Amino acid sequence: MEALAVLLCLLALLLGAVAGFVLGRRTSPAAAQPADGQLALSDARQDAATARAEASRAREDAAMAKAEIAQHLAEKSELRVAVSEAQRMVAEARSETADAAAQIASATAQRDAAVQRASEQVRDREALVAQFKLLSAESLERQGREAEQVAEHRFKATEQLVGPLSEGLRQMQEKLQAVETERARMAAELGEQVNTLRLSGDAIRREALSLSNALRTPQVRGSWGESSLKRIVEISGLTERCDFDTQHTYVSDDGRFRPDLRVNLPAGKVIFVDAKVPLAAVLDAYNTEDEARQRAHLQTFARHVRTHIDQLSEKNYWQLDVGSPEFVVLYLPSDEFYRLALEQAPDLHDHATRRHIVLASPGLLIPQLQIVANGWKQVAVTETAAQVSRLGRELYERLATLGAHFDKLGRSLSGAVTNYNKSVATLESRVMVSARRFRDLEVTSEELDQVQTVTETPRQLAVAEMLDYQERRDREAELLARDPRLLESPGAPVHERESG
Fold first, then answer.
1. Is residue 100, in this structure, part of any structural domain at all?
2. How is residue 451 annotated by DSSP?
3. Domain that holds residue 20
4. Is the entire prediction scored with pTM above 0.85?
5. pLDDT-derived band of residue 494, with 50, 70 and 90 as boundaries?
6. Which among 234, 318, 417, 487 is placed 20 to 30 Å from 433, CA to CA?
7. Among 214, 246, 276, residue at a domain's last position
8. What is the CATH number of the domain that holds 353?
9. Whether residue 207 is found in the same domain as residue 271
10. SS3 for 262?
């Protein structure tokens, strides 16, 4: 760095000398040639300015060089400080290395001593082991045999304990395999059933769609309503052609009428039932999700029901059978249809009643028909009671006749016993006395048995009705001939009516 500064100073001095030489050279001809003095002076001035500029640049370069030299000197000083610090650290490292070497030497000496002691201990241990082997070989052999026996005994005991457990595990494994087999079979069956259920669901959906389309046909709706009505009547306990008739045709001055159902009532009266199925609007309501359109379709359904009420009222079915109740039952084959109709038209019942029409659904018609069936049962009970009364009277009369015959038979038996006893007395007093003389004459040695009389007599009948039956019959005939009004209560005997 110092050499570079010296070099720069020399370069600046050299440039100054060159500039002075040039100026001196240009001033000397000026004295010799005065004519060209001004031009040369001007050139010299320019050269001097140029030289001054170059000198100024040289000074700037020298200043910059000095600054760089100062910077390099500062860096050199820092490097000297760093070198001094490094030398100090090297000295410390050398000191630590010497300490470590001393410690390593000490540790090596200790290791060698420990190795020597360990070798001595190994030799002592080998000597002790050899001596122990010599002393305990027999003991170890005996203990080994005992240990083998104990181990075998424990193995057998363990085998006895583990045997049932192994058998249980084997059975459990078999059961698990059976359960797994059954599970696989059931899974396969479940898959088949799910597939069958899916196919059935598809078939049901197709059938439901087909049924929905079919129920839009008037003929199909009518058949469905009639079959539903007939099923409801049969469920109620009525019998076709006895308690009810279907599609019975009436011919009158107004034309031919054929109500769907005619229910026969006791006392020769009938109730007419007509099934109506205005189903198209309900199906349209179920097939749409728009609430406004649903309400519109349901209102159309209620209007259709009202129209059916008016049309059925104009037929006056109750006039076809004199004495029948003046109303006709309009049957809707679903409780849901009945509910929807009343929800949309709450006055529908009043409207139907004013036109002699009774609205009914399966839930309402079944109790009504069961009342009719119960009425027929009461009629049957009444008829049965009348038959029982008639059979009782007939049986009573026959028992009375049989009692008279028994009375006559008893009297005949009493007369026969009396005659028998008289014959026995005559036999003993008249015949047997003479016959026993043959034995006294020793004609025969056989004894003649004594003929016994009959002491039992027939028991007399204690029932008065059976003793004087013929007398009472004659008396009843005489009373009826005198007063025919006694026939008004045939259930009581004539003698009771007379005494009453």
1. no
2. P
3. 1-67
4. no
5. very low
6. 417
7. 214
8. 3.40.1350
9. no
10. strand
DSSP state of 240: B
Query: Could you tell me which of 379, 383, 371, 390 has the C-alpha nearest to residue 491?
Result: 390
- Taking the C-alpha atoms of residue 153 and residue 158, their distance in angstroms, rounded to an integer, is 8
Quote the distance between the C-alpha of residue 340 and its chain's center.
30
Query: 271: which strand partners?
Result: 263
Q: What average pLDDT is seen over the chain?
A: 73
Do 292 and 180 fall within a single domain? Answer: no
Beta bridge partners of 330: 274, 359
Number of domains making up the chain? 4
Point out which residues pair with 329 in neighbouring strands: 273, 358
The structure tokens listed for 204 are 């049901």
In whole angstroms, how large is the CA radius of gyration of the chain?
75
Residues 239 and 275 in one domain: yes
Q: What is the spatial distance between Cα 324 and Cα 32, in angstroms, rounded to a whole number?
A: 177
SS3 content of the chain, % helix, strand, coil (to 5): 80, 5, 15
**Distance between CA atoms of residues 402 and 244, nearest Å:** 46
The answer to whether 461 and 407 have CB atoms below 8 angstroms apart is yes
Over the stretch 122-172, which tens digit does the pLDDT of each residue have? 777 777 767 766 666 666 677 777 777 777 777 777 777 667 777 777 788
328 Cβ neighbours under 8 A, 6+ residues apart: 259, 271, 272, 273, 274, 312, 313, 315, 317, 318, 356, 357, 358
First vs last C-alpha separation in the chain: 175
Is 245 part of any domain?
Answer: yes
**Is there a single domain that holds both residue 231 and residue 316?**
yes
Same domain (yes/no): 293, 177: no
Q: Are 246 and 226 in contact (CB under 8 A)?
A: yes
Q: What is the spatial distance between Cα 251 and Cα 254, in angstroms, rounded to a whole number? A: 8
> What letter would DSSP give residue 326?
S
Please report the pLDDT score of residue 375 as a whole number.
79
The residues, ordered by sequence, that sit 6+ positions from 379 with a Cβ below 8 Å of its Cβ are 266
**Residues present in the chain in total:** 500
Query: What residue has token string 């082997």?
Result: 133
pLDDT higher than 80, residue 118? no
Q: Which residue has the higher pLDDT, 170 or 217?
A: 170
| Domain assignment of residue 448, yes or no | no
Q: Is 26 exposed, middle or buried (0-12, 13-18, 19+ CB in 10 A)?
A: middle
Whether residues 189 and 233 share a domain: the answer is no
**Same domain assignment for residues 355 and 285:** yes
Compute the half-sphere exposure of residue 360: CA atoms within 13 Å on the CB side of its CA. Answer: 24
The pLDDT of residue 384 is 85
Distance, CA of 142 to CA of 414 (rounded, Å): 124
Report pLDDT digits (tens) over 23-33.
555 554 444 44
Task: Express each pLDDT in 228-241 by its tens digit.
Answer: 777 877 777 776 65
